[in-house]
Design a protein that fits this description.
single chain; mainly alpha; elongated
Length: about 190
């Protein structure tokens, strides 16, 4: 296994590829470094960023949790928690678009928790504080949306019940009627 110092060129390659917008290339370099140093928080953090950029939110979250190891440097832990919050927030956005309000609330709660942890490790991070506030707002929005959706579903169920009852009465009344109705006999609503 290479020492961390010897693995620095791999990090540099990954960083250069990330800077160039090549998340897949960066991930390949970071994966190599992770195989050589699976418990190294800096490797996990960079790998998580590449996974986040490539859209693998679950993989990114796993990498950020590894990077947030209690033995890691405070700066790395704070960044890992912050980035973990971003991954959860993105997942919350995704499920909110699909109108899965309950799941999105859970993701936004996890995001808020991760931003809080980042703030506990390094106080005064304005971005983490801002994102915490956004996550808390999104939780409230999703709670309201879920309540509206549940109310709409209750109303639709009630409307369906009324319709079924009316249809049942209409059906039983029409069975008793065997004559023919002309258009002149129908009562039309005024316009």
């Amino acid at each position: 296994t290479l020492s961390l110092h010897d693995a620095l060129p791999i990090f540099e390659t990954g960083n250069e590829r990330m800077s160039a917008g090549d998340a897949a290339g960066a991930l390949a370099a970071y994966d190599l470094a992770a195989r050589q140093h699976p418990e190294e928080p800096r490797v996990a953090l960079d790998r998580g960023l590449a996974l986040l950029e490539s859209g693998d939110l679950v993989g990114a979250r796993e990498a950020f949790v590894t990077a947030a190891d209690p033995d890691a440097d405070d700066q790395i832990r704070a960044a890992a928690y912050y980035d973990l919050g971003l991954a959860f927030y993105r997942e919350g956005d995704s499920t909110a678009v699909e109108e899965d309000h309950e799941a999105s609330q859970g993701f936004f709660r996890e995001a808020a928790d991760a931003f809080r942890r980042s703030l506990r490790v390094t106080h005064g991070n304005r971005d983490a504080a801002w994102n915490l506030e956004l996550a808390l707002r999104r939780i409230r929005e999703q709670e309201e949306a879920q309540e509206q959706q549940e109310e709409q579903e209750r109303q639709e169920q009630e409307d369906l019940s009324i319709f079924s009852s009316s249809l049942s009465r209409l059906t039983s009344n029409s069975m008793a009627f065997t004559g023919t109705v002309s258009i002149d006999q129908l009562k039309l609503s005024p316009k």
